[in-house]
Amino acid sequence: MNTLAAPSRLALYLNLIRWDRPAGTYLLLWPTLSALWLAAQGFPGWHLLAVFVLGTFLMRSAGCAVNDVADREFDRHVKRTAQRPVTSGALSARAALVFGAALAFVAFLLVLTTNLAAVLWSFAALAVTIFYPFTKRFFSMPQAVLGVAFSFGIPMAFAAVTGAVPALAWWLLLGNLFWVLAYDTEYAMVDRDDDLKIGIRTSAITLGRFDVAGVMAFYAGFVAIWAWLGASLGLSWPYFAGLAAAAVIAGWHYTLIRARSRDGCFRAFRLNHWVGFAAFAGIVADFALR
Predict the structure, then answer these.
(1) Number of alpha helices (DSSP H) and beta strands (DSSP E) in the chain
(2) Which residue in 99, 110, 153, 232 is deepest, having the highest Cβ count within 10 Å?
(3) Which is more confident, 239 or 18?
C-alpha cells in the first residue's frame, strides 16, 4: 500500500508546481537571463547561471503553491482550475504552503552564494510573490503586480553581478512589465466568463472590448522600451534582430486572440515564452559576435 501511495503523493506535488507545464518558468527565465547577460556584458559564468536558472524554477514553483492556496475558493468555480490539487482537496493548504516554503528556502540558499545586495533584494522579490495572488480581490489590473513579480529577476541579476541595481535594471523591468501585461491578459481572457461570475478582477475584464487592442499595445510597449535601451547601450544588429523576431511573434499572436476564443487565447499565452527567448537570443548573439 505504501509503495502505491508514494507516487500518488508525488504526483500531487508535481501537479501543484505545474511540473508538466514549464511555460511559466520560461516566462520568468528569459528576462532574468537577459538581465544577467547585460549586467555581466556577456556570459555571466556558470555559477550565476546555475543560481538563476535553478532559482527561477524554484521560485516559480513556490509561487504556484502560494497562488493555489490563496485562490482555492475561487478556483473551484473556474473550469480550467477546478481540479488543481489544493482546490480539489487532494492536497491540504497547509501541505502546499509547507512545500512552497521549502522551495523558497532552497532558492534563498542559492542566493546566499552570491552577494549581500542580491540577498537583500530577494526579500522584496518574495514579498511581491506572496502579495500578488491577493490583489485579484481589490485591484482592477492585478496583472501589473504579477508583472513586477515576474520581472524581479532583472534587478536580482544586476545585484548579483554588480552589487547594485542601476537605472538600466528598472527600465528593463518596466519594459518587461508590459510584456507580462500582454501575455497575462491573454491568459485572463481564457477565464473571463468564470471570473465575472465569481467577482475576480483581471485586466481582461477591466479592458473590456479593448482587450485585444490592449494586449497589442502592451507588446508594443515592451518592444519599444527594450529597443530604446538597446540603442542607448550601443547594442548592434543581433540584439535588434532578436527584438524584431519578438515583435513578429507578438504580431502573430494577434491572429490567435482576435476572435477571443478560449483555445486561441490559451495557445497565445502558452507560446509566449518564444517572445522572451527571441529577445534573450538577440542579447547572447550580440555579445558573442563582438
Answers:
(1) 16, 0
(2) 153
(3) 239
